[in-house]
Amino acid sequence: MSAPTITRINPTSGPTTGGTTVIIFGTNLASPSAVTFGGTPATINSSSATSISVTNPANSAGAARVLVTTSGGTTTQPVNFTYTTIAAPAITSISPTSGPASGGNTITISGTNLLYTTGVTFGSTPASSFAVLSATQVAAVVPAGTAGATTVSVTNAAGTSGTLPYTYNGVADPIPTSVSPDNGPAAGGNTAVISGTGFTNATAVAFGSTAATSFTVASSTVINAVVPPGSGAVSVNVTGPGGTSSGGPTYTYTAAPTPTITGLTPAASGPVSGGNTVTVSGTNLNSATAVTFAGNAASSFTVLSPTTINVVTPPGTAGTTPVVVTTPAGASPGFNYTYIAAPAPIEVFPTTGVTAGGDSVAITGTGFTGTTSVKFGTTPATSISVIDDGDITAVIPAHLAGTVPINITTPGGTDSSLSFSFQPSPVISSITPTAGPTIGGTAVTITGAGLIDTLDVYFGATEATAFTVNSDNSVTATSPAEVAGASAVTVNTTAATSNGAIFQYVAAPTLTSLSPTGGAIAGGNNVTLTGTGFTTATDIFFGANPAAFTILSDSSISAVAPSGTGAVSVTAVSPGGASGTQTYTYS
Fold first, then answer.
1. Whether 326 and 275 share a structural domain
2. Of 372, 390, 423, which one is at a domain's C-terminal end?
3. Are residues 478 and 447 both part of a single domain?
4. How many structural domains compose the chain?
């Protein structure tokens, strides 16, 4: 079995009293026989091949090395847990300082030495839950309590803080005394203002046995409620944490008058296919049970107010038809609505054009009067001109290559029976990667439009070593060898030559010296690399281990040596390749 290794621990510090749950990450960690902190055994909670959960022991302040032992051996990585001496917590303020007796609200406690908090209490009752926000703040969910004053305190392993006062608020029974207006339509929907006391925490409002459609608590003495449907005289009552009122003020439902229609917007007309939304304006519409067009029920309708209904029209026959709204009080007189036949295009000429757009087409057919748009696919024509009911001219927009429907929209609807084909010209939008070594061999993915018929790919004046057209119509080309510098990538297709995209040929970096040439196995010291071609450096390696680094100039890099052992090769890597090596020795 291989020896265990530790890559990191979390957390990395805790109190000297121990008891902190620490997760150890690494490899070959399954079934440890021992885990020690500074030589003292920890309690092992669970383990897997890549992690161990332990409860650390008490220890003196300072760094304690963490070691894991399995049947494969003991870890050698220098991983430390820092023990910190903690002081008893002190609290200076809480916010807010009061809340409901039912609890459940959250308060923020501020003070010092709060980082290792183990408990928050309200009087003698623990908080429902708490979260440590920082060394100076803890958030706690207040438990239920008894109306009146209590105290808040915080505890950690070093002791318990002093206390600060917190008040549980009492809750009074709601008492409604009046409602205004005190009458309204049987269909409800109007707003009534309820006055009284004890409304702050109201949870329900009822008109008789029916809950209000909705309500808003404006203050402890006022509630605005939307009246539900009903009949006759009913009592209005309010429910709160303190209970439900009884014998509230009386509200009387009155019979609704017959509806009327005064207008249709945005127009009293629409397509024979229906499906468009018409707003019906009028009076006494709030209890509508049906909306019909020449006796055909609307596809759907929504009552917005006593004066407004939104209606989705059903299919119909070209011509004028009456619209009628029906409520429990009766049916409105009919209001005229006109169904308009859909456009019927027959031919477009020409049927093809270039992706750049700009060409004109002529469309013939019927029903073009009032045309509002002509789209090629989802892209609007650059301009349109309606010659007469049977002729339209349109300037095609720029569009990707392919065949798309021509969508002609009039007040009668939209027709998509004709189509138009856009012919592609190759366009490069991006290449990935944008740089590579002068020796060539980089696989470059070219994306854009019109690349499916690619014949060849060039880097400058040199043809790509190979290329492939991918299933997503991108092209992958292998860069040829070139001198260092910028080169234009172009694609030739059966249609034309594309625009150019810049590919930067980069020479491999050179590494001539290190200073110093060695250091401690724990790493962390700065090493200066001297050489050339460092401006585009992407990685520095000490053996197989990556190092953090800062580019000082094209000839100098400052790197932080990672931990390691023995003599290792140091290399610098850039898009141009890897440098030669210099030896660095750990001791």
1. yes
2. 423
3. yes
4. 7
Residues 412 and 364 in one domain: yes
Angle at the Cα of 486 from the Cα atoms of 484 and 488, rounded to 5 degrees = 130
The two tokens of residue 118 are: 């183990």
Residue 354: what pLDDT?
A: 67
Residues 266 and 335 in one domain: yes
User: What span, in angstroms and rounded, lies between the C-alpha atoms of 260 and 280?
Assistant: 10
Contact 276, 293 (CB under 8 A): no
Give yes or no for a contact between 172 and 197, defined as CB atoms under 8 angstroms apart. Answer: yes
| Residues 415 and 458 occupy one common structural domain | no
Write the CA distances from 466 to 13, 262, 455, 577, integer angstroms: 56, 73, 11, 21
Q: Which DSSP letter does residue 509 get? A: P
The domain in which residue 547 lies consists of 510-586
Q: What three-state secondary structure class fits 324?
A: strand
How far is 514 from 274, CA to CA, in rounded Å?
Answer: 80
Cis amide bond preceding 350, omega within 30: yes
Residues in the chain where the model's pLDDT stays below 50: none
Q: What pLDDT shows up at residue 170?
A: 66
Q: Are residues 275 and 213 in the same domain?
A: no
How far is it, in rounded angstroms, from Cα 23 to Cα 52?
Answer: 6
Residue written as token pair 């239920």: 144
Query: How confident is the model at residue 172, as a pLDDT?
Result: 62
Report the pLDDT value the prediction gives residue 267, as an integer from 0 to 100: 84
Residues 6+ apart with CB under 8 A from 332: 258, 259, 260, 261, 282, 324, 325, 326
Using only C-alpha atoms, the chain has a radius of gyration, in whole angstroms, of 40
Q: Quick one: pLDDT at residue 286? A: 85
C-alpha triplet 224, 229, 235: angle, nearest 5°: 65
pLDDT of residue 390: 92
CB-based burial label for 145 (10 Å; 0-12, 13-18, 19+): buried
Instruction: Specify whether 349 is located in the same domain as 403.
Output: yes
Query: Own/partner pairs for 44-48, CB < 8 Å, 24+ apart?
Result: 45/21
d(CA 46, CA 35): 12
- Residues 31 and 76 occupy one common structural domain: yes
Number of Cα atoms under 13 Å in the Cβ half of residue 2: 9
| Three-state secondary-structure class, residue 102 | coil
Give, as one character, the DSSP assignment of residue 374: E
Last residue of a domain, one of 381, 407, 423: 423
Which CATH number belongs to the domain containing residue 449 in this structure? 2.60.40.10
